[in-house]
From TrEMBL:
One of its GO terms (molecular function) is ATP binding. Belongs to the disease resistance NB-LRR family. GO terms for biological process: defense response. Keywords: ATP-binding, Leucine-rich repeat, Nucleotide-binding, Plant defense, Repeat. InterPro entries: Disease_R_plants, LRR_dom_sf, LRR_R13L4/SHOC2-like, WH-like_DNA-bd_sf, WHD_DRP. This is Uncharacterized protein. Residues 160-489 form the Disease resistance R13L4/SHOC-2-like LRR domain. SUPFAM superfamilies: L domain-like (SSF52058). Pfam families: LRR_14, WHD_DRP. Residues 43-114 form the Disease resistance protein winged helix domain.
Length: 517
């Protein structure tokens, strides 16, 4: 028995040794610019879901990726990420509706290898609740699961990056302040996501070399004016915090590229000073000076992603004037739903009539509010991948006529009376690239029809809270369909739908079908 177990263990050790040799060879043949990016991924704990956007911004802040050949640092970093993905050094956990990966991970064995290599080269020092074995100079410190033994440690004089990855429950304001006071003033990266912070640590404002600051998933409510000292800041991540207003001093952060807040944050009119800004989410334009803010947004010509809430009908001309200047936009969300911030109410008129043409590179479009007619410029958005309409109350034929010919459209969702007609008919030859269709809370809708040859690549169909008079006609023509979800139709009409026919067809096609009553 012992001999058999020992033999199995030796065999396993031989396998591990061979695997490590394979990893070593894979690492050896990586170009230098990928080696450090790859080793840096050891900051993520075992089985941790890796967010691509976070990695890209961190690599840019660490200067692993820099601008070259007219490409922004973030674009270069995304190329590096894709190279590692193509070499199978990063794994896909799942995919979005359009087949694009949304979450990633590192294989456990591969992670062990990069931790060892990173320690050898002093790329990253990991702290996971055990005593920290500090090299002479700790340059990057990643905290996993616990902050024990960190506050008392005195080996952070050379610290450049401090990252909290995972659940560090007992790391509070006092702990963060203690670490920052005892550490280096040379920090360029500070990621405090998920830390039990309730106030903005005052020591942060003294980190004048800081390029990356994340307070995501904290309880911070207020950003002090002293943040204006951080003149080198490129990323400010306030997602899932309680911050509702940004100080005037934000306008001093001229190098800022990424600014994300929740709760439709009020931004100062000085926002127009941030000429390098690429991402601005989510801002509130419902205050007295909202029209000034909309005009200032037009100065941000590098913007790729923009979310604006609180729009009023009279804001239409100023909004359209600014949008025409934003030729680099890839994602646009505009919302004319009147509300005291955080409280939903009725949709208002979203006036986009004066917009002569849409952003030419736009990939994702979210229009929230009443539209008098389908914007004519939608037909020219040939790069559009996803469209989401909410509260539009459209009845005209142009809606489907213009959308159906967009060559790259893969996702389409109509919600909350986005369409106010009784019938949606999808014509043959239309929506050739569409993979997902969602119809939700369209109270006037009674019939959905698919002509033969329509939506040939549709994979997912969801219909929820629509008072249909029968199941979608022509559903059998959707030969690539993988999943159908029917959710909570009105009881009195639900009985009229011959679901047995759909069940039988789904069974024959090996389709997944869910019905929720």
């Amino acid at each position: 028995m012992v001999q058999r177990n020992l033999g199995g263990e030796l065999e396993d050790n031989d396998k591990l040794e061979r695997i490590n040799k394979i990893f070593s060879l894979s690492y050896f043949y990586l170009p230098d610019y990928l080696k450090i990016c790859f080793l840096y991924l050891c900051i993520f704990p075992e089985d941790h879901e890796i967010e691509k956007g976070q990695v890209i911004r961190l690599w840019a802040a660490e200067r692993f990726a820099q601008e070259k050949e007219r490409k922004l640092a973030e674009e270069v970093a995304e190329g590096y990420f894709n190279e590692l993905l193509n070499r199978s050094l990063i794994q896909v956990m799942d995919k979005k509706f359009v087949g694009r990966p949304t979450r990633y991970r590192i294989h456990d064995l591969l992670r062990d290898f990069i931790i060892s290599k990173s320690r050898e080269l002093n790329i990253v020092t990991l702290a996971s609740g055990k005593a920290i074995l500090c090299p002479q100079k700790v340059r990057r410190l990643a905290l996993h699961n616990s902050s024990r033994n960190v506050e008392e440690n005195k080996c952070f004089e050379w610290l450049r990056s401090l990252l909290v990855i995972g659940k560090v429950g007992e790391l509070y304001n006092s702990s963060v302040s203690s670490i920052l006071r005892g550490g280096s003033k040379l920090l360029t990266v500070l990621d405090l996501r998920g830390v039990s912070l309730e106030t903005f640590p005052p020591e942060v404002s003294e980190l004048v070399l800081l390029r990356y600051l994340s307070l995501r998933n904290t309880k911070v409510r207020f950003i002090p004016g002293s943040i204006g000292k951080l003149r080198n800041l490129e990323t400010l991540d306030l997602k899932h915090t309680f911050v509702t207003e940004l100080p005037i001093e934000i306008g001093k952060l001229r190098k800022l590229r990424y600014l994300v807040a929740d709760n439709e944050a009020v931004v100062p009119v000085e926002i127009g000073n941030l000429s390098f800004l690429q991402k601005l989410r989510s801002i509130w334009a419902g205050e007295v000076n909202g029209n000034i803010i909309l005009r200032e947004v037009g100065k941000l010509t590098q913007l790729k992603s923009l979310n604006i809430f609180g729009l009023k009908t009279e804001d239409g001309k100023i909004l359209c004037s600014s949008l025409e200047k934003l030729g680099n936009l890839r994602t646009l969300l505009v919302c004319a739903r009147a509300q005291a911030r955080g409280k939903l109410s009725e949709f208002q008129l979203l006036d986009l009539k004066t917009l002569s043409s849409g952003p030419p590179l736009l990939q994702k479009l979210y229009l929230i509010g009443h539209l008098e007619e389908t914007p004519h410029w939608i037909a020219s958005l040939h790069s559009l991948v996803s469209v989401n309409l909410m509260g539009s109350k459209l009845r005209d034929d142009h809606l489907l006529q213009w959308l159906q010919d967009l060559p790259n459209l893969q996702r389409m969702s109509f919600q909350y009376d986005a369409y106010a007609g009784e019938e949606l008919c999808f014509k043959a030859g239309g929506f050739e690239s569409l993979k997902y269709l969602g119809l939700f809370r369209l109270k006037e809708l009674r019939w959905v029809r698919f002509e033969q040859g329509a939506m040939l690549h549709l994979e997912e169909l969801e219909i929820g809270h629509c008072d249909l008079m029968g199941y979608p006609f022509g559903i059998k023509h959707l030969t690539n369909l993988r999943s159908i979800e029917l959710d909570a139709w009105d009881d009195s009409k639900f009985a009229l739908i011959p679901l047995r026919d759909i069940w039988n067809w789904c069974s024959g096609q090996n389709l997944c079908m869910d019905v929720f009553e």
